[in-house]
Specification:
Elements lengths: L4 H8 L26 E2 L4 E7 L6 E6 L5 E5 L17 E7 L9 E8 L7 E5 L2 E6 L2 E6 L9 E8 L12 E2 L5 E5 L6 E2 L24 E6 L7 E7 L5 E3 L5 E5 L8 E5 L4 E2 L22 H4 L13 E4 L3 E7 L11 E6 L4 E5 L1 E4 L2 E4 L2 E5 L8 E6 L5 E5 L17 E6 L15 H8 L4 H14 L4 H8 L4 H12 L5 H8 L5 H13 L5 H7 L5 H10 L8 H9 L7 H10 L4 H12 L6 H10 L5 H9 L8 H9 L4 H10 L8 H12 L4 H4 L3 H13 L4 H9 L6 H10 L4 H12 L3 H9 L5 H17 L4 H10 L5 H11 L3 H13 L7 H9 L4 H10 L14 H5 L5 H9 L9 E2 L2 E2 L15 H9 L11 E6 L4 E9 L3 E5 L5 E5 L3 E6 L15 H11 L14
Parallel strand pairs: 15-19
Antiparallel strand pairs: 1-26, 2-29, 3-4, 4-5, 5-6, 7-8, 8-9, 9-10, 10-13, 11-12, 12-14, 14-15, 16-17, 17-18, 18-20, 21-22, 22-23, 23-26, 24-25, 27-28, 28-29, 30-31, 32-33, 32-36, 33-34, 34-35
Helix pairs in contact: 1-33, 3-4, 5-6, 6-8, 7-8, 8-10, 10-12, 11-13, 12-14, 13-14, 15-16, 15-17, 17-18, 18-20, 21-23, 22-23, 23-25, 25-27, 26-27, 28-30, 32-34
Length: about 1000
Amino acid sequence: MKYRWLAIIPALLLNTAFAVSTLSAQTERTPEQAVPSLTVAPGLQATLFASEPRISSPSSIDVDSQGRVWICEVVNYRANLRGIPTRKEGDRILILEDTNADGKADKTTVFYQGNDVNGSQGICVLGNQVIVAASPNVFLFTDENNDGKADKKELLFKVAGGEHDHSAHTSIFGPDGKLYWNFGNTGKQVFDRDGKPILESNGRPVLDNGKPYWGGMVFRCNLDGSDFEVLGHNFRNNYEITVDSFGTLWQSDNDDDGNRGVRINYVMEYGNYGYLDQLTGARWNSPRTGMHEEIPLRHWHLRDPGVVPNLLQTGAGSPTGICIYEGSLLPKKYQGEIIHSDAGPNVVRAYPVEKEGAGYKAEIANIITSEKDKWFRPSDVCVAPDGSLFVADWYDPGVGGHRIGDQKRGRIFRIAPPNTKYQFDKLDLSTTEGAIAGIKSPNLATRYLAWNKLHDLQEQAEPQLEALYQTDNQRNRARALWLLAGIKGKTKQYVERAIKDENPDIRITGLRAARSYKLDVIPYVKQLVKDPSPQVRRECAIALHHNQSSAAPELWVTLADQYDGNDRWYLEALGVGMDEQESKFMSAWLKQAGDDWDTPVGRDLLWRSKVALAVPYLVKIIESPDTKLAELPRYFRALDFISGKEKNTAIAELALMQEPENKTRETYIIAEAISRIPASVVTQDKKYQRALAQVIDSSRGTPEFTKLVEKFNASDYYPELVALASQSGKSQAAVDAIRAALSLKQNALIRKSLQEKGDTEKEQNQKLDLIWALGSAGHKGANAILLKIIKNGQDPLVVRREAVRAIAKSRSGAHALLELAEKGPFDPQLKQTAAAAMSSTIMKDVKERAAKLFPAPPTKDNKPLPPINVLAGIKGDTLDGRVMFNTKGTCAKCHIVNGMGKEVGPNLSEIGKKLSREALFESILYPSAGISHNFESYTVILTSGNVVNGLLVNKTDEAITIKDAEAIARTFKMDDVDEIIQQKISLMPADLQKVLTQEELVNIVEYLTTLKKAKKNEKASR
């Protein structure tokens, strides 16, 4: 599950906040309260189909053709990671049935039970076979005698990632008779039942390694696993894929926790969706030219060429199940639309979609919300044979993230118009007419059975399918078309007919059917290449993907000529179409364009192409005075995606550019260009040296200044580098500057700066900030400087204490301090400072050695705390809680609330609508019980012996970046790294409550429950 907010918080340091519930903390939370606690959209009614004790903790559901609800009941969720009570027999796959038509389940059948399905997160019922995703396995169960019991279990697929929320998810049957499924960014690789790597038709393994695929992926294959395709990649944790009757794919994806970047995607086939940097595999927070300022947009690399745009971004959340509603029982506004559950904000939504150019736009329409009971955690949605909607409720104080807060409760709701009975006609496959009725069903399990019956009938079903194709229901027409095109010998006939249809969705379906049934698509693209619908032309571009026909370049050029210069969906479709043939296709377009290439369309095509032949054109665009300063980052970023001699030569030319009429543009261009040239080239060429001096002079006080001085050993600027470190406060800029100075062996300059007398308060603070930066830099060269300060009794005590805290941050520094203390005598005025610094280290050897010299100070309150449910029932003081949050609780040292604080952990500005009070207390008192993906603590051991601890920001083949608890990011070359160890404990101290009284702890929780809507951000410390 993409259940992550509960685990985010403890993974980081700190108190999380949970929304206030109007249900009493002492309530029994009975099923009788379930429906009254929901707010349901007008025209709809929620009824309780099943609840505890019949079921508990449902993670995924499906509804079969008989109207029975199948659930993955996962009370053993991540039991191997936590010391929780478990069901020894394992988790269960249940079948819930309403035998007396009263709308409530009265019969429960255990289809399968075992520890091999613990924590399963996907179920798909296909007749007497059931696919269950229980990472790392995807199982195929068969009920051979239709008694509701699994008689046979087979392995269908295996993924490289282990048991994890970001791994294999549920499967779905498509209108083309194919299987669609996905995994998140821990799936890594897919293997067949024999353990052999799955290969695509071109021999490429389905592997997350950047060649070309990254992260989460979407798959399509035959039901037996053959003809395997990757349809999209570079997602974070794409929880579930859904497919409409036209073959269009829709999906949700969750962001790195706390960044309000949850998204809904139209999955354009073969697209890259931008979670990681396609070049390096770095995450969104790695600096790059031209990135968005807004984190939710920056998160998905949306300004990089080759990234498909998002349909919709929904803010903070924990997105889970998704489906397409193709029934008629619910009100018209939901018909044909995406319906999606998000466990974080306790909501089930529809996303009404409208076509926009070659893509779509959407809005949000809530179906169910729960302001009264924040334990409502919708985990999946599914459409029943009568057209009603079933919703699974995980019902828990949190949203997963490798932990479960309640193992005894769970609910299944049915959503329908008021007073609508749960009844429908039984599927009859004994006649063709019965199968036709089944293919029109809103329920996928029913359509699966009908599809197979009609497909087996072939020409015998043609008259009835033809009649269905003649109706005015476009989704039913599309379903008929897929089957008509599957009649042997009739594929071309029906494809030809479909691409001439007046409805663009049917023309699109016809072209997709041609691809699915392995026809030569070129004749059909020729007929559609000038279609009035940009969506049809989008599909034409996708159909050219890896097509080696000699006609393909010309067809692509014709499609490109109809690009309007604004439609990013269309542009990315063109990119998909020219993939691996960019030079061939762009050469054809440039030949036709001639001297008229420099238009908005031409610029976009060159930006998107990512091939060497685009380099001279990109240089001309950059050099052109008509190119505005704000547009320049885009084209420099495009150059980053091109390698080779042509690009290097062009960059060298740009580094010497002169534009006297616009010095601002000139400085920017030179800075961007010269930063891309090897230092050895710049330092040996006087003309580059002059250009470097010019750009360094113009970038004083910026991060670029530090990078340029360090990269090019610009010795004239070393004093300014040290000054920048002392004058930038406790900031990333200060740490970067002092680290650069240490790397450049400027210890003498640093000492000189520290020895200067500080007469004013400002100067004294600058000295303290410089000492802090020395400790935060993690550079061994800082130890001698800091030790000298510690031993110098003439220095002010406040300075020496700061030096103690600073030197204790690294392993080598801590041991140097301990050695000084062991040789004694150690200044008594520094002992408490040293004891406090040493007590917070996670380096075992340092902690053990320090314990003898610097015993930890006594705790504040030794009184035992009452149980969590009692704490949750105590009313706190919001105002005092806010004060505690920012002071004694140390919360603001790692979290931002409305722009205030430090950006180590997730932004808590809206955490108040995420989790319950109980889950907050559990997170504070037991922080390591569940740590969210991407918020694990790492220890990096350097070849120098230094040890760095913190959160992994980025890791590539060349470097690793770690952010410590003071929000300082430190980057190390992999050549300097000896070992990287993922810790099993949270960065959050396990005894944080010991610095607070019970009353103060309760007050912090009270304050955080009020944080439900982010206010306009002020600048936060980073």
